Amino acid sequence: MTPIPRALLKALVSLAHPRMFLLLLLPIVVTIVAWLVLGIAFWSQAVAWLDAQMRDWEMLEWLLAYWPLTLVAAHAAWVLLIALMVPVLIIVTVLVVGIFAMPIMVSHVAARSYAQLDERHGGTLVGSVWNSVAAVAWVALLALITAPLWVFPPAWPLLTLGLLGYLNQRVFRYDALATHASAEEISLLLGRERWSLLALGAITAFAAHVPLLGFFAPVYGGLVFIHFALDRLRALREAPLEGRWTRVGN
Q: Domain span at residue 106?
């Protein structure tokens, strides 16, 4: 079995463990609290502002002309606001899981499946926070660059999937390696496995949009990246050439 499917399957097994199941409450609580805070603070004003901005949209007038789409058009501000809020809440949840839950998840997975890996602590808490801030900044920049495409509703799923996929891999990849890999190993693996990490980011981003499964997606995504990263780290250290230099200092 290749590394990506293996990581996806192993993450499912890890997710079923009682300790990991308790961590599932974290993204659910964060999502509920965020919805309540944002709803109480900004919802009415945001809907009113969007409704005023959208009155002259030609696309809205076109939607009103077709009966099946009339209901959507009549509540276009609500629909658009929800479409914007869901990615924001997913981003917040991913960051919370990445910063606070990942150390627990890494410790759990490593103890059960990768106990032979030495801890070389190439990452730090400051590095994790900075990595998360940089990830959000890049997502914001990419969202700004692709802003013209957001005018077309059919493009929303692809854009959201791409942006959240990038966020997932950018946040989780560092935290998955921070404890066990050295700084050199982190740099080497992130370069070598770039496309595999992006693929895993897209897969876990898609899972976040599946009803009900979305509640579990952040923790599941973290577990996927942990299994993939530690598996690749083990392979790196066991390789006859690359692994030779990683053993220096043991």
A: 3-21+90-237
